[in-house]
Amino acid sequence: MSKRRQRILDAAEELLKHYGPLKTTIADIARHAKVGVGTVYLEFSSKDAILEILSGSRHGTILEMMEAALDNTDKMPAERLGDFFKARTLGFLEHASQGLHGAELVHCACPGVADAHSAFLKREEALLVEFLSLYSASGDFAPLDPHATTRALLRAYATFSPPWVFKCDRQSVEADLETLHGILTRGLLARSKSA
Questions:
Q1: pTM, to two decimals
Q2: Residue 111: which domain range?
């Protein structure tokens, strides 16, 4: 990535976290990056293109944390599943705490952010289907339909996702997340494992 492109992204990120996507313009970004408006358009087709890159980066960081949780073979599959959802929730909360409008860089109606979030949801679903398939086949989880179970789990954990998770204090979110995970995993475990 060119230094100029990175400078524009850095300027945009700073402004977006402080003023939000709706109040930040390409002209503001250009001024903050100390380049001309035309220069911004040489690098990016629109403000939404900038938003998609910045939001995609945030979502990518959260996905890496979620993948690391599932890949941690030092823990049992049910614990790893809990860590997956905890990483997801805490990742969103962390990004939301970055600036007055930090939450809008991971969830808002702007097309660039919405596109990045949509890509995140598809990857999240694929990760869960793969994980549940593997551990249902190995006998760690009771026999299940990985696709249906993934849909149900994602719906069950929906309140720990944007925008709802941003309306609660972190301590109660973590406690409720732990409680929900305990309830759900007991139903997923194979009988011999849960006894």
A1: 0.90
A2: 47-194
